[in-house]
């Protein structure tokens, strides 16, 4: 085992990663396995450095003294000492040779300057002679001008003036050196820019890479249609696979697609209304902050008023249930067209506006994950709009349509208790998301993921048509539950909601303003990026506690459907698979981003929601 050079607590000079700059740091610890030093900078940042990136302060002081010894004042002192009789002859010879070289350089410079002046004089005479000839006067050469004769003696007759100017440049040497330095500096930054452009490419591909994403583009729409077809069956068990397929012409209706477009652009209109506050998002890679209008809850209120007006004028809202498959197909078609538009426009986007996770250079992968991070039409942010508006609010409207369809089909004056629970739980979830709309600006969907087929399909198809699966199932398969069971399920949902909301609030408030006095009780580990990792509260209890709340709520949404079939629990199974992927992705992302700080966090918070899956 090699001996360590620097002790704990020793103040040394540490090189900042990716640069040639050294800063004063203090050695915190040493890892015998990886042979890395953990050092702490003055601002509290902790990094793991190799021994080759650390130097003692004495070596920097030694260099400084060496450089100062070569200053002009020291050189003059050394020259004066060289004349001393006590100095060795070798030193005198070196000093005298240096003096001769200095004199020769000075003499050469004077000669070049004089010659350049003569050249300028000759050019001036030529100009003067031309003027005299134009005026009919004799030129100076006819009068044997002295300066011209001297110049002709200096220069050979067959030497061209241009060659002389090239040979004897009038630019001082210092300016030439500065030019060379500027050129090398420009070349250096161009190289750095090229390296950054190459490093910005997505190297680690998710979802099975190009082949996996290509298959998902077809598999996801097929899954949605399969789930809806199964819910329509009298016996929706897995043994009845595959369900009878409807005629293709019955899956498409222009009127239904028109209603879907009307719904989408109605939400666009609500989004563009000048109501609600405008806030800034997190800084982008170039330091810029985008502005977002927070009016999702107002859009929900306006939508509720519009739906109430339709019901007042006796519009049959269960039209959604009767044409549910056609609405799903319309949403799939619209999301595909939107994804194609997003990818085409992303090809013209600047490099700094591309998504970190969707810049692989592979068409299929970038099309699926999203190539551009924040596609906008003016101030209209397409990704931010689709994240909460048409799909999430549409989910509530679909649930309401299923409730009314259940009452009509089964001739009930009141909806079933199961349907009421499903509608109430999911309404709470949607209202909470819209009320805390600003919190979405700190999520991975906004800060990291691009807007492509994955998010477009998820926001416009998966959320409204799969998340409403329990309500759709209960219309054709009513399930009776008792009040005590309903009370127990309600308590379970409240626990899940409390964990979900309090954990997300801690994270979002801390990201927004770590210095908030209300968060003074929270402890955190500082990182090299300037951010902190919470080690108290919910985030000190388990990693990703918000995912734990999601799973509990998903289970509470499915329990009112009973245990006759597994189909209503598809959402729970899907949600667990999704969160396993997200947690694994977050673990990998945080390890790369925070380095040693993340390892310290994992030691402080060893518990994970899925400890044995990855």
Automatic annotation (TrEMBL):
The chain crosses the membrane at residues 211-230, 250-273, 294-313, 325-344, 455-475, 481-500, 521-542, 562-581. PROSITE patterns: STEROL_REDUCT_1, STEROL_REDUCT_2. It is found in: Cytoplasm; Endoplasmic reticulum membrane; Nucleus inner membrane. It comes from the Eukaryota. One of its GO terms (cellular component) is nuclear inner membrane. The keyword Endoplasmic reticulum applies. It is a multi-pass membrane protein. The keyword Cytoplasm applies. It catalyses: 4,4-dimethyl-8,14-cholestadien-3beta-ol + NADPH + H(+) = 4,4-dimethyl-5alpha-cholest-8-en-3beta-ol + NADP(+); 4,4-dimethyl-5alpha-cholesta-8,24-dien-3beta-ol + NADP(+) = 4,4-dimethyl-5alpha-cholesta-8,14,24-trien-3beta-ol + NADPH + H(+); 5alpha-cholest-8,14-dien-3beta-ol + NADPH + H(+) = 5alpha-cholest-8-en-3beta-ol + NADP(+). Residues 53-108 are annotated as: Disordered. Residues 4-62 form the Tudor domain. CDD domains: Tudor_LBR (cd20381). Residues 66-75 have a biased composition (Low complexity). Pathway: Steroid biosynthesis; cholesterol biosynthesis. InterPro entries: ERG24_DHCR-like, Lamin-B_rcpt_of_tudor, Sterol_reductase_CS, Tudor. Its EC number is 1.3.1.70. Pfam families: ERG4_ERG24, LBR_tudor. SMART domains: TUDOR. GO terms for biological process: cholesterol biosynthetic process. Belongs to the ERG4/ERG24 family. This is Delta(14)-sterol reductase LBR. It comes from Aptenodytes patagonicus. The lineage of its organism: Eukaryota, Metazoa, Chordata, Craniata, Vertebrata.
